[in-house]
Amino acid sequence: MQISGWPNGLAVDYVERKLYWGDAKEDKIEMSHLDGTHRLTLLADDNLPHIFGFALLGDYVYWTDWQRRSIERVNKIKGGEREVIIDQLPDLMGLKAVNVFDVSGWNLCSDRYGGCSHLCLPIPQGYRCACPTGQELLADNRTCIVPEAFLLFSRRSDIRRISLDTNNNDVIIPISGVQDAFALDFDIGDDRIYWTDVELKKISRAFLNGSNVETVIEFGLEYPEGMAVDWVAHNIYWVDTVANRIEVARLDGTSRRILVWKDLENPRSIVLDPSEGYMYWSDWGGVKKIERAHMDGSNRMVFIDNGGRANGLTIDYSEKRLYWADLDANTIELSNLDGSDRRRLQIASDQQPYSLTQYEDYIYWVDWDKGIFRANKTSGENQTKIQGHLGYVVDILVFHASRQEGWNLCAINNGGCSHLCLANPSMLDADGQGRHNCSCPMHYSLNDDQKTCSRKLHAVLRYELLPYC
């Protein structure tokens, strides 16, 4: 049904099978049959300045009016008998009229909730069971469970999930404000997902059900194509492909610091190994390579040279292997975390893997043209399509506790650091432990106690004169 105004309220007359609505733009109340035919204007005059809440009970239509600050009613058949029920009520919004002594109607959901464990939704053909956000429907189409593991992937305009425990298709996570989602990661500790948006030039986070969207990093970003969460120290790392730098901050966006900026030509993907204190990233510059450094940016080295345009870096933490997609050769490669035993995974020759993730015995990848696939992580055998026809998927990961295990001293009281605790395998104490050092945000310096930070006055004055770079 075409409506040119603002239909602010809807009400159904279940007995007469009619639909009523208020139009706040045209200042009138209309009605029709439920199939849209026999459309009529019930009431229209200058004394309907702004209809908002709308309801029907018995022989009357009731509504709230913002400007008149009133609750009124009119006969639902002829539009007569108009009456102001109450007025001079500020901030009037919705309205519901109910006869608590008259409960009528029936559908299949009325009988033991249709056998559904959670939600029973009536449809013209009967009913269907549904689940709260974050749960998945089993093959019986009645029982909802919280999946143990699921795939998260970004599809530019939205972020979706696919359960690995059920046979359900992808489900959109209802996150508001997504324009061009790119890199993804999560923090298993508080069930949040993090993503970069290369159109909005910011990094955001939200709970898995899509609620409580927050901006983590908003300024000074050009093209944040790679991002990774340090789940032990509660830090976030990201790669800016245009600004050519790698930065770190706390998960809430505070204590931001540049770690690597020299000799970066086109950095792309980044992955972290907090237990061992290393970070890995790919560079698509003149000499395409994968580099490794301590998580404080020190002890940088070329890890894999002649690696092609490496993307989708992911670590198999149990087997201590690094996987990546070579976009030039359309292959998946892997090596040990010391760089040895480099080889290609034998997958179908028509595949074009772009982004990767690993879980249990499988490596999962995205092919832009064909969908999401998986195969045995060692042999490449048992290749299976998980989901096809997804469009432009740019990042993928498995949400499961096994993907964020491990420990270092940053897990205890932030390692005693006032700001940033950064894993560092060379920082060992007398007992052979430690694996961290304290660091400070830009324009702060580390005090003699090697734990707390103080603001550098000359740096603050310089920052006010020069833009952040």
Can you describe what's shown?
By secondary structure, the protein is mostly beta strands. 2% of the residues lie in helices and 46% in strands. It has one helix and 40 strands. The protein has a four-stranded antiparallel beta sheet, with no helix packed on it. Strands 5-6-7-8 form a four-stranded antiparallel beta sheet, with no helix packed on it. A hairpin with a 4-residue loop joins strand 1 (7-13) and strand 2. The protein is elongated.
Tell me the span between the first and last alpha carbons.
54 Å
Mean pLDDT: 89
Considering DSSP H and I runs of 4 or more, what fraction of the residues is helical? under 10%
How large a portion of the residues is in β-strands, by DSSP E? over 45%
Radius of gyration: 29 Å
Class inferred from helices and paired strands: mainly beta
Task: Show unreliable segments.
Answer: 459-469
Number of strands: 40
Sheet with most strands: strand arrangement: 1-2-3-4
Q: What general form does the structure show?
A: elongated
Oligomer: single chain
Which keywords apply here?
single chain; 469 residues; mainly beta; 4-stranded antiparallel β-sheet; 1 helix
What is this structure, in a nutshell?
This protein is mainly beta and 469 residues long.
Secondary structure blueprint with pairings:
Layout (H helix, E strand, L loop, with lengths): L6 E7 L4 E6 L4 E6 L6 E5 L6 E7 L2 E6 L4 E6 L7 E4 L32 E5 L2 E5 L5 E2 L6 E2 L4 E5 L4 E5 L7 E2 L8 E7 L4 E6 L4 E6 L6 E4 L6 E7 L4 E6 L4 E6 L6 E4 L6 E7 L4 E6 L5 E6 L6 E5 L4 E7 L4 E6 L4 E6 L6 E3 L7 E7 L2 E6 L3 E6 L7 E4 L7 E5 L20 E9 L5 E6 L4 E3 L6 E3 L1 H9 L4
